[in-house]
Design goal:
The chain is α/β, with parallel strands linked by helices. The protein has 24 helices and 17 strands. The chain has a five-stranded mixed β-sheet with strand order 2-1-3-10-4, sandwiched between helices. A five-stranded mixed β-sheet has the order 7-6-8-5-9. The radius of gyration is 35 Å and the shape is flat.
């Protein structure tokens, strides 16, 4: 009786609790505020869609969207000041979190930052390194651009930094040489104005930051967890709708929020956002702790953050672990009730033992039956859990394979992007010369008298024979020396056109001929004609070199691909030298600071699966590069060992500690930091080698680590 009474009361309380909570959510209409970080435009389309389509209202939220006219300044303070505040931010949240502002990122919208650096396409800026000494406008908090410049060897002190006025006319009208902005918006302004530009993205240097995200405060997450979760889900639903109905949402923005920009610009912005958001390939709002660690590392290199800051509490978890405390309390109360009931029953049994013995035995039998049923249910649950864990392990194995291929693809992308970018840029400059300058150059040359023609032929010959590129600092020093030496010539002003053209044509190397060239009344025209021809000749050389490099990378990729029959078979004859050389070619970008020592013996063919072996070589080479921090010596040896071919990959890194040598081939064991590996690489390699009848071992070496693979020798 006592047990039934306790059970009935608990069921009543739980039912009432479960009934009241959803009722409160239905009748409430909570007021929250979302602070945008710029003027109304398609950049915030998901929030407009969530509001206008009633997604916020469906979850009981009344959201006020506030436009910013001063950028991101002040938004973080507003969000953390009181609850009910949300904001749109970017990677700067990591800096504000470290400065003590308790901000929490709820979800990332832009998987890749739209931040780029714009140059005039036909200007004298041929590459990112030509920026030294030039006028540059940098957007506040756009630190990925600063990191990009620093990675290319350019410090802010090397530039003339101008205050950013967010007016594209500054670049169009020549008031600035480079202009940072968004590829999603400013690109339209330049295109509309008919102004040709080249956009450099930090991703060319491997700096891949997130773009826009939305965030709130720790207080909001702690005090109103259900409201935060509802706001996040409604917002992501709005973004999914906006990217699937771009035309409709553009109409909403133009008609209800702002007519500052035409609908044509809004749709252009939407199209440019699609590859940055990747709404089809990546779940909306997804964020990877490893990417945030990458951003932390870049800030660390810039001296803005300490290394490896704690991200706990900074990244919102929409599905936190369930709190089971109420179950423990309920169980304790129930257990106490059972104890009290048992004591009462025990006293009764003391008094009436003989007449209640049969009833007690019957009761115990029923309890055992119920317990047996519970154990059977638990056993089924454990079998189901084991199946889920097995499936999860298979997914992790596939994920590790994709991660290795992703690293390979990233290096190849850089290897191809660099020469192809040079080809495109040089081709455009060459096209500009042929279309707009060639006729003018020819018309000028034919008007030269005999003396000026002699000067032109001499200068052209000298210029084409000495194609030497000067760094910014060297160029400035030479200008100062020439100005001091030829100060008596009015034409050799330090910042004048004659001085710049003397440098560009290489005339500075023939100091004895400078006065001879400049004494002509048409010296400026002679210098300009030679400089134009030299620029076209230089573009031709760049295209030639870049084409050879791209052809080499594509050839390596072609050798890497095989037919389906060869991939499936574990008994194919493999030429190890060809396969390993192909992998090294594909890893060329990562080997810039690595000395590769190759000791290929006479026995270079084995029996195995070409695709699986290539994955093994990629894993072992990649592990060696990480162990050396991409600086050092990598040795690859192929030698005969009886009926086996032995392949050894030796790095000059930190080696493997004695305490973990027995664990390195175990699944999920890794020495890499969180977010950089799952510890499945060597386990996968070992399984694949065993499937081919071979073995893999860690062998002792004087320095670094030596991984050796034994494979069956091919019979010649």
């Amino acid at each position: 009786m006592a047990m039934n009474l306790i059970r009935n009361r608990l069921n009543y309380v739980l039912s009432l609790f479960l009934f009241i909570i959803p009722f409160q959510n239905i009748v409430s209409n909570e007021k929250v505020t979302l602070h945008l970080k710029w003027f109304h435009q398609f950049q915030f389309a998901g929030y407009y869609a969530a509001y206008e389509k009633g997604f916020y209202k469906d979850v009981g939220l009344d959201v006020e969207l506030i436009e910013s006219t001063v950028g991101i300044r002040g938004i973080h303070e507003k969000v953390v000041r009181t609850t009910g505040q949300y904001g749109v931010g970017s990677n700067e949240l990591l800096l504000h979190r470290h400065m003590g502002k308790p901000v929490v990122v709820l979800g990332v919208i832009f998987q890749h930052s739209p931040s780029v650096l714009f140059f005039k396409r036909s200007s004298n800026l041929q590459s990112i390194h030509d920026l030294v000494g030039k006028r540059v406008m940098l957007t506040p908090w756009m630190e990925e651009i600063v990191a990009y410049l620093k990675k290319e060897g350019i410090n802010k002190s090397d530039l003339q930094i101008l205050e950013h006025r967010f007016n594209p006319r500054d670049l169009i009208e020549g008031r600035v040489d480079a202009y940072s902005g968004y590829a999603t918006t400013q690109a339209f302004d330049f295109k509309k104005a008919g102004f040709p530009v080249v956009a450099y993205s930090p991703r060319l240097a491997g700096i891949d930051f997130y773009g826009d995200n939305f965030f709130t405060s720790e207080a909001e997450v702690e005090k109103f967890p259900e409201r935060v979760k509802a706001f996040r889900e409604a917002t992501l639903r709005g973004w999914q709708y906006a990217m699937s109905h771009q035309e409709e949402v553009a109409d909403i923005i133009y008609n209800k929020y702002s007519k500052k920009h035409p609908k044509e610009r809004l749709l252009f912005e939407a199209q440019q956002m699609t590859p940055l958001i990747q709404p089809i390939l990546v779940e909306m709002g997804y964020m990877n702790p490893g990417r945030w660690k990458h951003i932390n590392d870049i800030y660390y290199e810039l001296g803005m953050l300490p290394k490896n800051i704690n991200l706990k509490g900074f990244l919102y978890d929409p599905d936190p672990p369930t709190n089971y405390e109420w179950i423990y309390y309920t169980f304790f109360i129930a257990l106490s009730g059972v104890g009290v009931a048992w004591l009462i029953q025990w006293r009764r049994l003391n008094k009436q033992y003989s007449e209640n013995l049969k009833n007690q035995v019957k009761q115990r039998t029923e309890e055992l039956r119920q317990s047996n049923e519970s154990l059977q249910i638990l056993n089924k649950s454990l079998v189901h859990t084991l199946k889920e864990l097995t499936e999860a392990q298979d997914r992790l194995l596939a994920s590790e394979k994709l991660a290795v291929l992703g690293q390979l693809a990233a290096g190849m992308a850089h290897e191809l992007n660099t020469p192809l970018g040079a080809i495109v840029s040089s081709n455009l400059s060459l096209l500009d010369f042929l279309k707009n300058k060639l006729e003018q150059v020819i018309a000028t040359i034919v008007t030269f008298d005999e003396d000026d023609a002699n000067r032109y032929h001499f200068l052209l010959s000298e210029c084409l024979q000495n194609q030497t590129y000067l760094e910014g600092k060297s160029e400035r020093n030479i200008k100062k020396e020439l100005h001091a030496q030829f100060s008596h010539l009015g034409k050799m002003d330090l910042y004048g056109p004659h001085m710049q053209l003397v440098i560009e044509t290489g005339l500075f190397r023939r100091v004895d001929q400078i006065e001879y060239i400049l004494e002509s009344n048409r010296s400026l025209e002679i210098l300009q004609v030679v400089a134009s021809i030299n620029s076209a000749y230089r573009c031709n050389q760049i295209i030639s070199v870049a084409s050879e490099k791209a052809t080499h990378v594509i050839s390596a990729l072609k050798n890497y691909l095989v037919s389906e029959k060869e991939i499936v078979s574990n008994d194919s004859v493999i030429d190890l030298e060809i396969e390993i050389e192909t992998i090294l070619s594909l890893y060329h970008y990562n080997l810039s600071k690595i000395t590769v020592v190759k000791n290929y013996g006479s026995e270079k063919k084995c029996i195995g699966n070409r695709d699986k072996l290539n994955q093994v070589w990629i894993n072992l080479i990649n592990n060696g590069l990480h162990a050396m921090s991409f600086v050092g010596t990598l040795e690859i040896k192929i030698q005969s060992d009886g009926d086996w071919v032995k392949i050894s990959i030796i790095d000059s890194g930190i080696g493997v500690a004695e305490s973990i040598k027995d664990k390195i081939f175990e699944p999920f064991f890794t020495t890499k930091p969180n977010g950089e590996g799952m510890g499945l690489g060597l386990d996968i390699c070992k399984k694949m080698i065993q499937q081919m009848g071979g073995k893999i071992e860690l062998e002792p070496t004087s320095k670094g680590a030596c991984f050796s693979v034994w494979l069956r020798k091919a019979i010649s």
